[in-house]
Specification:
Elements lengths: L1 E4 L2 E4 L4 H10 L6 E2 L4 H11 L6 E6 L11 E4 L2
Parallel strand pairs: 3-4
Antiparallel strand pairs: 1-2, 4-5
């Protein structure tokens, strides 16, 4: 299913919106965990009504200084 968020077109798995609504109706905490990046994950969390503090994503930091590549880090906000 394609959803629009400002200028982005976001594809999510069919039925996920309904699943999130049902879980929230049962007072179940819903989390969004992805190997994607914040710029893509935050709009999806917003569309699905998932709190930003419940979304986790990867942030890759790379430095070309002296050829050093920093580790892949998982960040929340």
């Amino acid at each position: 299913m394609a959803l629009k968020s400002s200028s982005l077109v976001i594809w999510i798995s069919p039925g996920i919106e309904e699943l999130v609504k049902k879980l929230k109706a049962r007072n179940t905490d819903v989390y969004l965990i992805s190997e994607g990046f914040r710029q893509m994950i935050n709009p999806v969390a917003s569309i699905l009504g998932i709190q930003q503090e419940n979304s986790f994503w990867d942030l890759m930091l790379m430095s070309s200084l002296q050829g050093v590549e920093e580790k892949l880090l998982l960040f929340n906000k």
